[in-house]
Give the backbone structure.
Amino acid sequence: MAAIALSGCSNSATHQADMPACTSTFDFGKKTETLGSSEQLNTELRNAVQRGDSFQLADVTRAAGWSDNWDRMVKVQVNIKAQQLNQNAGTTNCWANLPESDGEGYRPPQFYLFVKDGQPVQKVQWPDPWALIDFGAHPALTKDSTLGITKGKIVAQP
């Protein structure tokens, strides 16, 4: 039963009502850089903080040399539930190796997840234990999302 809860997938009748049928499984443990270099994206995010100007999210991904083959980005924080991730990402996926903490001080890696047409494309591990981007009330950001800098942090504008 624990494996079902951790993976976000279920074939049992009791869980099918809570969880949509999965179209595929995305593994946060695998390094796939379909869009571009994760390291270069984190560098460009830090550069944006240094510049201090407002910008669109696509400006940063393009500066990192990324493909434009994505349409939304969501945060994947410690102990996020598969159902919440699917809702934020607009997906119906199963998820392997979601970041989980046992509450004993262990801080697993956390990610930004890039999605295209309801399918996860690439994850980018946060360079620090804290996210560089504050999404505010937004469950997801898009290429056109305007971001600004507040107190050394990237903040999604209303």
Q: What stands out?
A: The chain is about 25% helix and 25% strand. Residues 1-8, 10-17 have pLDDT under 50 and may be disordered. The first strand starts at residue 25 and ends at 27. The beta strands are 25-27, 55-56, 72-76, 94-96, 111-116, 119-125, 133-134, 146-150, 153-156.
